[in-house]
Design goal:
Protein name: Ion transport domain-containing protein
Organism: Mytilus galloprovincialis
Distance between the termini: 41 Å
Keywords: Membrane, Transmembrane, Transmembrane helix
GO cellular component, one term: plasma membrane
Radius of gyration: 39 Å
Number of strands: 2
GO molecular function, one term: monoatomic cation channel activity
Order of helices and strands: HHHEHEHHHH
Length: 197
């Protein structure tokens, strides 16, 4: 941005002596050097200045604009500043587009990583949920048998205490948590082998 501003200023205002730090901060030459390339990033061309067609409130008399910094100097016409402006705007738009693409791809990779983790979690819960279920058309007779089995085993101390204890232990929370831990361990080992984590 600073290099483009210096090229613009050197060609639009030739033979211009620049004071390092003039008396008032608003007349520092750095603002006029950075103003045009900064606004060109946002699409403002400033072709009236670059092509030397600006004629409002400026003077070509060198004694006036040298002695009074509030009087602006009229720009001179040259073919080089519009060409430099076209190249500069093309490069800045290209760089900004690349930054946006990089941000989108980083966000996409983050979302894909999280989505695959969520998919694995939900797949695991579905597998655990349907591990002991029977498909839909065949489950009607089995449901009757399962209901009868639970009624027989869970009536309070009625028929079969040993059967109730085995069923509670076989379908307990500890066994389900152990299966989930084992499944998570297998998934983590697969991801380590693939280099995902």
């Amino acid at each position: 941005m600073f290099a483009a501003g210096i090229v613009y200023h050197a060609n639009v205002y030739p033979n211009h002596t620049v004071k390092a730090f003039p008396r008032d901060i608003q007349y520092w030459q750095i603002w006029s050097i950075l103003k045009i390339p900064y606004w060109q990033v946002y699409g403002e061309l400033n072709l009236d200045v670059l092509e030397g067609s600006e004629d409002t409130g400026c003077t070509s008399n060198s004694t006036l604009w040298k002695n009074d910094p509030s009087i602006s100097r009229c720009p001179t016409s040259d073919w080089l500043p519009p060409v430099i402006a076209a190249i500069y705007m093309m490069l800045t738009n290209w760089l900004l587009l690349n930054i946006v693409i990089a941000m989108f791809s980083a966000r996409f990779n983050l979302i894909m990583t999280k989505s695959s983790q969520k998919w694995r979690y939900h797949r695991h819960s579905v597998v655990i949920e349907y591990e002991h279920k029977i498909p839909s058309p065949l489950n009607i007779p089995f449901r009757v048998l399962i209901i009868l089995f639970y009624v027989m085993c869970y009536l309070p101390f009625y028929l079969c205490n040993e059967c109730a204890e085995e069923t509670i232990q076989g379908h307990g929370i500890d066994e389900m948590l152990q299966r989930q831990r084992e499944f998570a361990r297998v998934i983590l080992e697969e991801e380590k082998d693939k280099g995902l984590i």
